[in-house]
Design a protein that fits this description.
4% strand, single chain, 9 helices, mainly alpha, two-stranded antiparallel sheet, 2 domains, 251 residues, globular
Length: 251
């Protein structure tokens, strides 16, 4: 008959399938895990223990989102693994567009400060509006070249890490999420101060540190290789900036 004693039940089959897929990751050792917790009903939950390091797979599932955000700002690898592997965040595209808008707005303001023309003519206002769109396009191209430089370096140095299309997509999502620091550009300009240029420089450094941590966590690399990839990405990005400047564009 079909109901032998040794035949696995439905939940056991599902458990085996999830374990084979490695649906989640341990935030401590980056090992694959089938589940984050066991639900014993009546509100009783038990966090799963990692088979590799014998620590809780993801302690952050019990934490308040504010605590997780603070840990992410502190660039803790565990928080990054929780966000990238164990949550279903799908705001990569929207976050990228908003960050680019912030950067374009900063550049547009600096461009307006450099031009002393205060004529309220409609043609002038129209030109200023197109200046903003141009800054958005330039910021987009620069970020794209920065990411391309990172991908080329990582693919050249560790081709085994980026074998599948899903590997590239996961790394791209991680890089897009790790640019969230650019959102700080707006308050830095709203509360303009003598130290604003220094603040903008700190924000740039923070974004690069976040990018490095995202690469390290996603591909499970050491600390040196992500920075090497970022350095090459910056070279490519600055090459694009020099190209725009030779074309006579204000960037």
């Amino acid at each position: 008959g079909g109901g032998g004693v040794g035949a696995p039940s439905g939940p056991e089959v599902l458990w085996g399938a999830m374990a084979a897929l490695g649906a989640y990751r341990c935030i401590e050792c980056n090992g694959e895990a089938a589940e984050l917790y066991r639900d014993y009903r009546r509100g009783v939950l038990r966090i799963s223990i990692c088979k590799s390091c014998q620590k809780p797979v993801d302690k952050y599932i019990e934490y308040d989102p504010v605590i997780i955000l603070i840990n992410a700002v502190l660039c803790k690898a565990q928080a990054y693994r929780h966000i990238l592997f164990n949550t279903k965040i799908n705001i990569h595209g929207k976050l990228c567009i908003f960050c680019l808008l912030c950067e374009a707005y900063i550049r547009w303001l600096q461009l307006q400060d450099s031009s002393q023309n205060t004529d309220p003519d409609d043609l002038i206002r129209y030109a200023k509006e197109w200046d903003f769109y141009r800054m958005f396009g330039i910021a987009s191209l620069e970020q794209t070249s920065f990411f391309i430089g990172i991908f080329i370096t990582l693919w050249w140095m560790t081709p085994e890490m980026l074998k599948r299309k899903s590997d590239f997509i996961l790394l791209l999502k991680a890089l897009l999420l790790s640019t969230y620091g650019k959102l700080l550009l707006i308050p830095a300009v709203i509360w303009e101060h003598d130290y604003t240029p220094l603040c903008l420089a700190f924000i740039k450094v923070f974004v690069l540190i976040s990018n490095s941590q995202a690469i390290r966590v996603t591909l499970n690399l050491n600390r040196i290789l992500p920075w090497f990839a970022i350095f090459f990405g910056l070279i490519l990005e600055n090459g694009v900036v020099c190209l725009f400047q030779k074309m006579g564009w204000d960037v």
